[in-house]
Write a structure and sequence with these properties.
The chain is of the alpha/beta class. It has three domains: about 180 residues, Alpha-D-Glucose-1,6-Bisphosphate, Chain A, domain 3, CATH 3.40.120; about 220 residues, Alpha-D-Glucose-1,6-Bisphosphate, subunit A, domain 3 (Alpha-D-Glucose-1,6-Bisphosphate, Chain A, domain 3, 3-Layer(aba) Sandwich); about 130 residues, 2-Layer Sandwich (TATA-Binding Protein). Helix content is about 35%, strand content about 25%. The chain is built from 18 helices and 27 strands. The strands form six sheets. A seven-stranded mixed beta sheet has the order 2-6-5-3-4-9-8, with helices on both faces. Strands 20-21-24-25-26-19-27 form a seven-stranded antiparallel beta sheet. α2 crosses α3 and α7 packs across α13. The longest helix is centred in the C-terminal third of the chain and has 18 residues. It starts with a strand and ends with a strand. Bound molecules: alpha-D-glucose-1-phosphate-6-vanadate (VG1) and cobalt (II) ion.
């Protein structure tokens, strides 16, 4: 087997976004495209020789060929050992678990998360560091810098590796170890949650749940956990076989894209509990019977009930949430007397806080929740956390959420997405709004008065690094907020995200329709940002 050194020229567009490098499949299939980026990762390992890596993906189209390329390049770059998920499958949180448990030097996750898959869909490459978390900005910047000057990559000329049979084999002088995709992750979950109690709930005959894996990566994990280990009846997991095109769907667990599940939970004779997860298994949606839990509320409720769960029985050190996430968790942190951190969008910003023991639970409004058990958000972990709470409290999801609102007040919350906007128009909207920011303070709009308006910047409390331009915030004197930012995960044009939040302490007023409760703020956002004009759309593509 010979190591081949291939001459190449740089691509200018390999800057990782919110979560790795994400492009269409045809873009990744261009000659040298994947190879250039992977070599840039290996070059920044500096040196790659002797290192160990974890490797897997969400099973989408191009997962298997990409794994072969990445393995052959790893061998050519002197990497000592790669732990690969069987069939190329590893969810994002499971990869984080494997990196931490076996102390590898990092890992590569092949996924475009919630973006659709298939030959014309999206593909992605995420690099995680030795703590198990998404590479922080200084690492992704180094990879990007390398990708702009790369002139060669190394690859081993060798037949494809068998990634379907468990066990070790050699690729040149590198060891390839095919590992069970589920076992390590399942063991970690067992160490955190009261499986006996959850099993009692799921086998009591009085409680029914439904888990929608959306034809994506959590299928094998959910089958093993809920049906085999926790005794839920066969059929509890729907869409539980990972498909290369996710069955043609959009593997994003929200009220729009997880419609199969929504119909069941909002239909007649609905089960007590429903959940869904995304392409790579790091997101979750939680539903009760005829009831939707917003991700921001979910974070707050997990925090408020954490001591009911064995893995968190001694309490939590702190909570971290992304800036656009509602302030519901802040109220819980205040009551618990623990710190609350506000970070930019993207899980990579939680890593330092988790490593330093400053935060135990983290969450994002985009259906992401997690804790210090790994360094990624974790969809099935959130589902198990909810089940553990339900098993202990013996109340319905709706009762638990409404009691929470009574105690802490309700943060009405919604996000409006405008997808596929012309990039230059989206940028014009943002530029114009940025120029208005200094003029807004003190101005009144309807019943709201602006208290502050800025472009969010974050100084990491651990390493002092500063991240600017992380989203425009317009805050009002009563604590309400409008936030606008452009997505860093889309692959076509621009996606504008507009986030709305208002606080309602009065239990009598906590049962309004969310869009109605936020109606005035929604109108103010249009007034200020001229969204219709710049997007050319008269309503959002997706409302969550
Ligand atoms: C989106 C979400 C963000 C999340 C990111 C990755 O980013 O808003 O909260 O961390 O996706 O999630 P953006 O830049 O498009 O708003 V996933 O499930 O791709 O790993
Ligand atoms: Co994801």
């Amino acid at each position: 087997m010979t190591i081949r050194t291939v001459s190449t020229t740089p691509f200018s567009d390999q800057k990782p976004g919110t979560s790795g490098l994400r492009k269409s499949v045809p873009a990744f299939q261009k000659p040298h495209y994947l190879e250039n980026f992977v070599q840039s990762i290996y070059d920044t390992l500096n040196p790659a020789a002797g290192k160990t890596l974890a490797l897997g993906g969400d099973g989408r189209y191009y997962n298997r060929p990409a794994i072969q390329i990445i393995l052959k390049m790893a061998a050519a770059n002197g990497i000592a050992r790669v732990k690969v998920g069987q069939h190329g499958i590893l969810s994002t949180p499971a990869t984080s678990c494997v990196i931490r448990k076996y102390q590898t030097d990092g890992g590569i996750i092949l996924s475009a998360s919630h973006n659709p898959g298939g030959p014309e869909g999206d593909f992605g490459v995420k690099f995680n560091t030795a703590n198990g978390g998404p590479a922080p900005e200084k690492v992704t910047e180094a990879i990007f810098a390398r990708s702009k000057e790369i002139d060669q990559y190394k690859i081993l000329d060798a037949p494809d590796v068998d990634i379907d049979t468990l066990g070790e084999s050699k690729l040149g002088s590198m060891t390839v170890e095919v590992i069970d995709s589920v076992a390590d992750y399942q063991a970690l979950m067992k160490s955190l949650f009261d499986f006996d109690r959850i099993r009692e709930l799921l086998t009591s005959g009085k409680f029914r749940m439904c888990m929608d894996s959306m034809h994506a990566v959590t299928g094998p994990y959910a089958h093993a956990l809920f049906e085999k280990c926790l005794g839920a009846p066969a059929g509890t997991v729907m869409n539980g076989t990972p498909l290369e095109d996710f069955g043609g769907g959009h593997p994003d667990p929200n009220l729009v894209y997880a419609h199969d599940l929504v119909e069941i939970l909002f239909g007649s004779n609905a089960p007590d509990f429903g959940a869904a997860s995304d392409g790579d298994g790091d997101r979750n949606m939680i539903l009760g019977r005829h009831f939707f839990v917003t991700p921001s509320d979910s974070l707050a409720i997990l925090a408020a009930n954490a001591t009911l769960v064995p893995g968190y029985k001694d309490g939590i050190a702190g909570i971290a949430r992304s800036m656009p996430t509602s302030q519901a968790a802040d109220r819980v942190a205040e009551k618990l007397g623990v710190a609350c951190y506000e970070t930019p969008t993207g899980w990579k910003f939680f890593g330092n806080l988790l490593d330093a023991g400053k935060a135990t639970l983290c969450g994002e409004e985009s259906f992401g929740t997690g804790s210090n058990h790994v360094r990624e958000k974790d969809g099935l972990w959130a589902v198990l956390f909810w089940l553990n709470i339900l098993a202990v409290r013996q109340q319905s999801v709706q009762e638990i959420v409404q009691e929470h609102w009574q105690t802490y007040g309700r943060n009405y919350y919604s996000r409006h997405d405008y997808e596929g906007v012309a990039s230059d128009r989206a940028q014009e909207l943002v530029d114009r709004l940025q120029s208005l920011l200094p003029t807004l303070k003190g101005k009144s709009y309807g019943s709201y008065q602006v208290e502050y308006s800025d472009d969010f910047a974050y100084e990491d409390p651990i390493d002092g690094s500063i991240s600017r331009n992380q989203g425009i915030r317009i805050g009002f004197t009563d604590g309400s907020r409008i936030v606008l930012r452009l997505s860093g995960t889309g692959t076509q044009g621009a996606t504008l995200r507009v986030y709305f939040e208002s606080f309602e302490p009065d239990p009598q007023k906590q049962h309004q329709d969310t869009q109605q409760a936020l109606g005035e703020l929604i109108a103010i956002a249009e007034d200020l940002a001229h969204i219709r004009h710049y997007t050319g759309m008269d309503k959002p593509t997706v409302i969550t």
